[in-house]
């Protein structure tokens, strides 16, 4: 059998069809209204500098858990990924599962925030947000759900403040930063991070975008746009795509000193495994994490390989450790239809069993 | 679909041109006539250039990316089509397409980057531009970090005896200034060297991808599968490129090349920053260095201030608790006193009852 069966008339028809879709789709694109993100109603309950702490409004017919859950998102990209649209919202589905959900929005650091350290973020902002929630609910401990880098922050926080965390959930969280399949890690090993931060101050979002897109340049900066032609005619699908596009390129700069410590301590020194991470004046030791832990990872994660997350298994001091694998990627775990059905309900059930 | 101007006129003209183009190409495939130079792309570009001023920034950005990919897609179809003109044997066509790619990638990538005008004539040659994507992304990122366009540094001369000249010590009263500028130029040279190394790495990957494409085509034959569209061919090419890229960028060699590229750029920018600071200082204006010192001190003060604020809040809470305890004591004390006689009275009553 011949490998190709492309007749000239077929090829011409295909090109014409593509052009027709593109032409029609462009009109939808030009008419596209402002893209909304962060769809679930929420109330700001605390603010400090650029940080905002939100509490999401629960549906009236759902009985809320008495222990609230604080979502700690990464400093990279924006937290509205967890609530990107009505039918793709981890937050909404957590609420539906009976959880009382809070979320930290770190804001957009600028040059004046360059000197912010991990200590400022973890023992400062994060700790104060936890205290605000504890006080509001008159509780000693609350639940924390850390996502990606926010998961690493949550592990550090729980290790340093175990008396304030009832249950810890980590989602697509890097723990072993030097697994053989970790492309990001391979790249930063030879980078002079001190020179980078001393030169740039903050790390520009553009540099991070370039790095992430460079993981799969042909798919992420090329093929994806070609595939879009097939959905340009569908206004809803187009909007979904544009929402994701907005999120991907909505990259806050990273506070320089925090980036310096994060890359050096974790990517270059693999601090969770090797030790040596100090935040403020206290060492981070995952054996101090004794609360129940639910570790969720994505099987096709190209940013945080599954082995990187699974490394948590033998590191904590928890006697109640659970893993949940999801058959998808780093982003799909929040936005795919399958994830919506599986992940938040599983989190809700796991938390209910421990509340 | 509304009757907008672009749909009625420009778009229909574009479509007409497509059909004419494909007719030309079909003729050429049958050995009848040469097609016009890159007609699909120029028609598409012409159409989008007319339309883009009316689009908002996000739409324009999105469509620009889409148009870039459309060009790659069309180039692939065009390149394939041209090869189909030489033979009716599809296997032969596939082999020719892969062989052309291999030939192109065996050339010097730097030469192609530097001579895009002449390269632009050949559809397959342009198809290779697909492999410029990682480089292109880098250039865009550099441009966003600098006042200079990303490719400015690439085109500066950086070979020959420049190194020797730059290594010569400065002389006289302006010695220090001369040294600073020589250091800057040395860093430009170093960055260019690292950029060349980076580009060279991708040039090799292009060749490997062409080979991988051939392997995938062979696998199709073994599996009894077929590609029946230009899009299928494009996807096969993307898959081959991504696979090879993924393998190669995980090598220690690439980590070093990548590290050297980023480090050399940062070293250059760092030096530039120092020179800018010196110029600003000379004009009695605040420098970046001073600003950063202030930022560090301010952050330290903020830390202390927040810690003190937290302590004050804690003390306030403790005060409130203490006050509340004291108030409770005061309130409960008379109650106890008043209860004592009652107890005594009850005891007396009980004793009286026993006696009785």
UniProtKB/TrEMBL annotation, chain A:
Gene Ontology biological-process annotations: poly-hydroxybutyrate biosynthetic process
Gene3D superfamilies membership: alpha/beta hydrolase
Pfam families attached to this UniProt entry: Abhydrolase_1
InterPro entries: AB_hydrolase_1, AB_hydrolase_fold, PHA/PHB_synthase, PHA_synth_III_C
Keywords, sorted A to Z: Acyltransferase, PHB biosynthesis, Transferase
GO MF assignments: acyltransferase activity
Keyword Flavoprotein carried by entry: no
Pathway in which this enzyme or protein is active: Biopolymer metabolism; poly-(R)-3-hydroxybutanoate biosynthesis
Domain AB hydrolase-1: 87-334
Protein name from the UniProt record: Poly(3-hydroxyalkanoate) polymerase subunit PhaC
From TrEMBL, chain B:
Keywords for this protein: PHB biosynthesis
Amino acid composition bias (Basic residues), ranges on this chain: 339-356
Region feature Disordered, mapped onto this chain: 326-356
Compositional bias of kind Polar residues: 326-338
Pfam families: PHA_synth_III_E
Pathway: Biopolymer metabolism; poly-(R)-3-hydroxybutanoate biosynthesis
Name assigned to this protein: Poly(3-hydroxyalkanoate) polymerase subunit PhaE
Protein's gene: phaE
GO BP, sorted A to Z: poly-hydroxybutyrate biosynthetic process
